[in-house]
Each structure stands twice: as C-alpha cells, then as structure tokens.
From TrEMBL, chain A:
It comes from Cladonia borealis. Keywords: Chaperone, Nickel insertion. This is Urease accessory protein UreF. One of its GO terms (molecular function) is nickel cation binding. It comes from the Eukaryota. The lineage of its organism: Eukaryota, Fungi, Dikarya, Ascomycota, Pezizomycotina. Coiled coil: none annotated. The keyword Magnesium does not apply. Residues 28-50 are annotated as: Disordered. Belongs to the UreF family. It holds the Pfam family UreF.
UniProtKB/TrEMBL annotation, chain B:
GO terms for molecular function: nickel cation binding. Belongs to the UreD family. HAMAP family: UreD. The keyword Disulfide bond does not apply. The keyword Chaperone applies. Residues 1-28 form the signal peptide. Keywords: Chaperone, Signal. It comes from the Eukaryota. Pfam families: UreD (PF01774). PANTHER family: UREASE ACCESSORY PROTEIN D. This is Urease accessory protein UreD. It comes from Cladonia borealis.
Amino acid sequence: MTSSADESTLKDEIARLEAELSLVRSQLQLISSSTPSEPDEPAPPPPKTLLPSHPLLLLSDSALPLGSFAFSSGLESYLAHHPNTPGNTLAAERFHHFLSLTLTSLATSTLPYLIAAYTKPPNLQDLDAELDACTLCPVARRASVAQGRALLTLWDRALGSEAGPSEAATALSNFSQAMKTPNSRLDDAENIALSGHFAPVWAAVTCALGISLHSSAYTFLFSHAKAVVSAAVRASVMGPYKAQEVLASGWLRGKIEGVMGANWERKVEEAGQGVVMCDLWIGRHELLYSRIFNS
Amino acid sequence: MPSPFPSTTSIPVPLLFLLTYGGGLVSGDHISLSIRLDPSTRLTITTQGSTKIFRPPVTPSTTTSPPTTRQDLTVHICPHAALWLAPDPVQPFAGSLYAQTQIFHVERGGSLGVVDWVSEGRKARGEQWAFEKWRGRNEVWDVPFGGEEKGEVGNKKKMRMLVRDAVVLEGRDIGERMDGKGVFGTVILRGRLFEGLGWFFVEEFGALPRIGGRDWGGAGERVKELTDRERWRKERLRREKEDGVLWTACFVRGCTVVKFAAEEVEGARQWLGSMLREEGSVGREFGEGGLMFVR
C-alpha cells in the first residue's frame, strides 16, 4: 500500500515538474524570440503551437453559413408547452433547464456518431445511414440534415481545397460525390441512401482540417448551445448580455464537459435518446400556432 | 383471388403471454426469446400486468457493480405474417438496472406492431424514475421477400435497418428530465396490416389543436353538428388534457412511429385504448386479445 502510494505521489510530482518545465521553456522561447538581436529587425513570429487553431476559429464562428440560426432544437416548442403563468418558474430558470436537457440529449444520441466518424472516417456513409435510422423525429431530422448538407457544401466550395490529403478528406469527397449521384438522395422510405447528417459530416470536416477530437466534440456541443441561446434571445427569453453571460458561464462549461465525459466511451450501438421529452417537444413543434424557427 | 391475409373470424389469433416468476425480474435475470412467424400466420404477445424490475440486493462493500437485468427478443416475420406485441409497461423499481433489446426482422409483405412503454416505478412508494439505469432498443430490419430462405438474415448487405428506437436513461437526474410525466412509450408499425392504424395516428396528430393558438369560436358561430368521429375526438382531447398526455406520430423510413408520455400509466392506457378501439383494426385483425393490455 505505502509503496504504491509513494509511487503515485512521485508520478504526480514528475508530471507537475514536467508541466512546469515546459511552461518555463515556452516563456524562454517567447523572451528569446521577442528579444531583437538588432533593434530595427521585426520580431520573428511565435512558434505555431502558441497560436490558436485557425480552422477551429473558422468553424466555431456563428457566421459560418450553416443556417443553424433557423433551428431552436425544441426550445420554441418547450416554451409553448410551458407558458408563463403565475407561480411558474422564471423564464430564465426554465431556459437553463432546457439547455441542460438538450445538451444531454445531443450527447447521448449523437456524440457517439461524431466520435465514430472522426475515429474512422471511411465509415462515414454507414454512420450517416445508421444515424438516420435512429433519427425518428422528422423535425429533428430536417435540422440535422440541413446543417450537415450545408457544411458539406462549404467543404466542397471553400474548406476542402486548403486541407491536405487525408482519409477524412477522401471520405468527404466520396460522400459528396455519392450525394450528387441520382437516386441516392431520394427520401422515399423504401429507397433510403445518404442523408448528410450534421454530426458525422462535422466529424469528418474537423478531422480533415486537423482539429483534435476533443476540440471537435467540445465545439460541436458548444455551437449547439450557442444556437439555442441565440434562439432564446430571438424568442425574447433573455437579452443579448444575459445570453453572453450564459455562454461565458462556468455552469455551461461544466455542463458540456460533464455530458462529454459521461458519453465519451459510448459506442454507436449504445447511443440513444437520453431525454425522451425532447423527442416529444421537437416533434410537436409542428403543432405550434405561430413559429419563428424551423425546429 | 384469395386475400393474402386470411380472415381471422374462423381461426382466432393465438395469444402468447410473457410470464415472469412472481411477475417480475430480479437482478441478473437474463431472458432471451427468439420467435419466428411462418408465412401467413399471426400472433399476439402480451403480458398480464406490468413487468416489475427489482433492484439488486444491497450487499455491503462490493467492488463490482451489480448485474443488469436483461430481456432480449428477436423475431422473424415471414411474408404475410403479422405480429402484434402489446405488453403492459415495464416498471423499473428504485435502484434497478435494466436493459432490453427487441430486434424485428420483417420480410417484405410481413407486418409488425409494437408497443413499448416504461413507467416511473412504484408511484405509491414515492418512486419517480429512481432506477439506476434503463436502456431500451427496438430495431426494425427490412428483409427482402424470401430473404430468410436465401440465407440473407444476418447479412447486413441484404438487410437494412429501417428504424432504431433507442433510449438510454442513466445518471442522477432522470426524474428532472421527465417533466412531471410518469410514463412514456413508443408504438412502431410496419407493413400492410398496420397501414390503416399508422394513417390514423398520423392524421389524428395532424388534427390536434394548435399550441398557443386562440379559440376564435365565439357565441356568434353557428353550432355545427358534430360527426361521431369529431365527438370522439373532442372527448379524447379532453382526456388528453386531463391526463397530461403528450404525443407525436409520423411516417419515417417505411414505418409509423408514435411517441407518447402521460402523467400516469392509467392515463396513457386510456389514451392508447381509445385510439386503438376507435380505429378498430387491431380488434378486428387480432381479436380482443390484442386489446387486453389496454383494458
């Protein structure tokens, strides 16, 4: 017992010292690189590893033309099912509750497909077909497919040419080729082919652009939260500053990290709906008397 | 030309009861059932009460997690055969661990109707979604006509998964995800025999009142003579509101999928029974045995 405790203490100590060493090294690197040898010469650029990931900044931009703003992921329907009545909890509280539910739902049902497609890009078409069989709500399907196809178009027209050759890049070009061939896009029930769901396409694109799996998954979930928060602003649940406060909050970070951790090991065969009410709210979006969003 | 579906007035549809010792399953029980419906046969499977899932015994200082209770069902449905699987809900007690998988291979021309529902536990004891883990998976596979004889069952190139309805409930916050509902479920329908019922659900879903709309019907409006169907619908909607029933229905990938939730099992039972009796085909094609579970 004592020896193993000592061992782990020592290991921790080594890890701590190593981290400290690399920090000091990078500081030295910064100082030496920013100390001009000749006073008039411009400073050489800092090492690449100290710069943020360029493609990640691009993909996390809410101006990315995926049309994500058109979907509320059930928020609009949820609010309609929980109208403001005296004694009801505040809209902001209900919003936090919904945001937490929708992140759980996305992580249990869809995150495994993202991870699988990122890990094995050649399986992209099979994963897309399997995810389609699991997406039983037409409203949710529309939202996923609209964003996935938009990202695929973006890949074809803008992102693909900059990415070097890779398994993921090949999988994406095959996928988009197959989408264009006649009959493969038929939504006819008896002739199902490719759909272009968001999560697997996102995984392949981030993989092809060299974004790490953790960053890819975190950004996918965070972008979902951003879209729902933005929908809340337009549905007058909260103002723009409150919205940024939610997005900046440790609560949201913890939530995303929590659902990622709880579902990281989940295989696609074990993926499933974790919040059954989400299916009902999203499905009943079609019954709303007036609608701002498409989901 | 004889009808591909023999009339059931002469031969009653056999009724298969799934019985468990003491009406429930204990920790570690694993039931595995495989059923084949020959061409032009029919079968109803039901239960005589909810399937209780007991919690594992509390044993102090165990390091291994207690075993999960499992039920696996695989059914092959030949052409012109029809299965109606309509049990009472599964009732997972507090602390229980449960996983069920139901796989249906439906050859072209075969028909399948499944009801799968879960309750919150022993409400009288204050249990509300207090189980440890609940997993459910229903898969409907499309098998080509005569695919079984050609040995195509199990060949993923020849068979196609039409829908996978999977639910994964794990974690400490399951009750919070249920929005006050005490039961939820799914109905999946496939094949000619259930076509009418599928349309009925989808059309009744479309006829639900808009959410958030106003009732403009004033005193000045002429009182319309209601048809029988309209009278029934009015009464059903009143009950839905009273029992907190929420539901959706849609056609997806060659199947009809209905999702429902209600505050209590009896409310859901009442709703389901009302829908099935009004449409009538289950009673007509499978006899009263097919409606036992909603009595």
